[in-house]
Every structure is written in C-alpha cells, then in structure tokens.
C-alpha cells in the first residue's frame, strides 16, 4: 500500500498498475491460505475499492463483500481514505466496468431493458445522510455527505457518457451539481481539508463543457495543489487537454475522450 501511495505523491505514470496487480495477486494468495478474516478484511476492502475505481478487473471471489447483506460490510463510506465510497456505489461502478469490457456494439432488447433498470437504480441510490452515531462529529458527517454526493453525480456522468454515450451537453447539469459538492467540501474544510479522492474531479472535469464551470473547476484544482500530490497536477493537465480538444474542429473523438487519453503514457497516473 505504501508503494501505491508513493506513486500518487510522485505522479509516476504506469508503474502504479504493477502495484495494484501485485496487491490483488497477494490478496488472492492470503485468502487461499485461509488467513484470519478479521485480519484479511480491511486489506481486501482497501485493494478491491482501489482496483474498481481504477477500472481494474477484480476476480469475483475477492469482491463477494460487495453483495454481502449481512451488515458486516456496511459503512465502507466511513473508512479512510475512501470517504463517500459506499458499497452500493462500488457495486454499480464495478458493473459499469464489466459492461464496458464486454460491450460489442448494438444491444438486444433484453440487454437494453436491463440497462434501463440499472440506470434507474443508480439514480435512486442518492446518498442518505450519515448517521450521527457513526460519525464522530457534525463536520465529519458533512464531509462524508458532500463526498458521497460528488461520487454519486460523477458516477451518473460516467454511466451516461460511457455506456449510454450521451452527448456531453446532456450531462452538464449533473457535472455542475457534482462540482458544487467539491466546492462545498472546501468550504466545510475552510480551504484546508482538501479532497484525497480524485476520481470524481477527474470525471466531472473531463466531461465539463461550460466555460464558467470550467473556471470554477480550475480554481478548485489550484486549491488542491497544497496536498502535494503530483498525480493531481497531471490529471489537471489532462482535463485542460480535453477542453482544448473539444474546441478544436480538427481534433478526433478519441482526443476528447478521457478514458482514451488517460491510457497514454504521459497521463496514466494513479486515479485516486
């Protein structure tokens, strides 16, 4: 885990993939060896959350806790550093990753109906207010509330743009709502808190087409530089490149697709 944290701070490209792959392999080895569940569970939750948010395929036996309704895996959104990342969000994001991996053109009527049902569930899963008996303070509860909502709106934007292939104009209201949550986090933290989880900012920034909102997001990125993570600076550059490509009539569709651009060696940094 320390190696992955170093990659986030240094902004070294591509090498983080080796660490995530190695972490998943080591996790499988520990699980096969029958390591005590109380010891294994925190490491498993950490690695699986990280892998899913980075778009890594995760073996089904490692992510069974996402569908565990016994209550033992509840409260993921309250664990450092993945504040706001709930079990429901991870399930949905993992399903999107799986659908994208096996996407092959036109869908059948049945597949389209299943996608409609999935989309409805995503919209219905609006984050509830944190329970006061879980959060240690009102400030903590407010931080988790805003972070959860930032992930919620970014998740909807990701779904619409990647699976539905909706035009960018169709998601601008969701984008602005998500950016409002990022800005609210700064206000709650009095500009000293920061946001450790960059995935929402990446998605919301990449799909933002309104000049005034882009200006607000630029200000937000600049305020986060105090955290000292170079991967944030690289992702900020990536977002600016996408904005520039969309205003260039000669640019190809791939040049304005963040999932395509981030795969390039220059931008392939740790997403979190």
Q: What do these coordinates show?
A:
This protein is mainly α and 272 residues long. It has one domain. It contains eleven helices and no strands. It has helices spanning 2-10, 15-32, 37-53, 87-101, 109-124, 138-162, 172-188, 199-206, 211-224, 230-246, 258-261. Helix 4 runs parallel beside helix 6. The longest helix has 25 residues, at 138-162. The protein starts with a helix and ends in an 11-residue tail after the last helix.
Structural class: mainly alpha
Q: Compute the number of structural domains.
A: 1
What does the average pLDDT come to? 87
Q: Tell me the series of helices and strands, N- to C-terminal.
A: HHHHHHHHHHH
Task: Throw out a few tags for this protein.
272 residues, mainly alpha, 11 helices, 59% helix, globular
Q: Can you summarize this structure?
A:
It contains eleven helices and no strands. It is an all-alpha fold.
Topology readout:
Layout: H1 2-10, H2 15-32, H3 37-53, H4 87-101, H5 109-124, H6 138-162, H7 172-188, H8 199-206, H9 211-224, H10 230-246, H11 258-261
């Amino acid at each position: 885990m320390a190696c992955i944290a170093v990659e986030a701070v240094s902004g070294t490209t591509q090498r983080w993939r080796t660490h995530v792959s190695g972490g998943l392999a080591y996790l499988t080895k520990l699980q096969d060896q029958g390591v005590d569940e109380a010891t294994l569970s925190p490491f498993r939750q950490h690695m699986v959350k990280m892998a899913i948010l980075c778009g890594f395929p995760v073996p089904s036996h490692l992510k069974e806790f996402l569908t565990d309704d016994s209550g033992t895996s509840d409260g993921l959104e309250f664990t450092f550093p993945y504040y706001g990342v709930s079990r429901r969000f991870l399930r949905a994001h993992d399903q999107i990753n799986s659908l994208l991996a096996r996407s092959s053109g036109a869908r059948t009527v049945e597949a389209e109906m299943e996608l409609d049902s999935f989309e409805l569930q995503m919209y219905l899963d609006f984050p509830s207010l944190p329970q006061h008996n879980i959060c240690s303070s009102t400030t903590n509860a407010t931080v988790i509330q805003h972070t959860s909502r930032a992930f919620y709106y970014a998740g909807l934007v990701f779904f619409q743009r990647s699976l539905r292939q909706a035009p960018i104009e169709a998601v601008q209201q969701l984008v602005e709502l998500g950016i409002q949550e990022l800005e609210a986090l700064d206000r709650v933290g009095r500009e000293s808190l920061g946001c450790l989880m960059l995935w929402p900012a990446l998605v919301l920034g990449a799909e933002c087409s309104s000049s005034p909102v882009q200006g607000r997001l630029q200000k937000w990125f600049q305020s986060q530089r105090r955290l000292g993570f170079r991967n944030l600076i690289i992702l900020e550059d990536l977002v600016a490149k996408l904005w520039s490509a969309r205003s260039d009539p000669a640019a190809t569709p791939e040049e304005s697709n963040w999932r395509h651009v981030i795969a390039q060696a220059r931008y392939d940094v740790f997403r979190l």
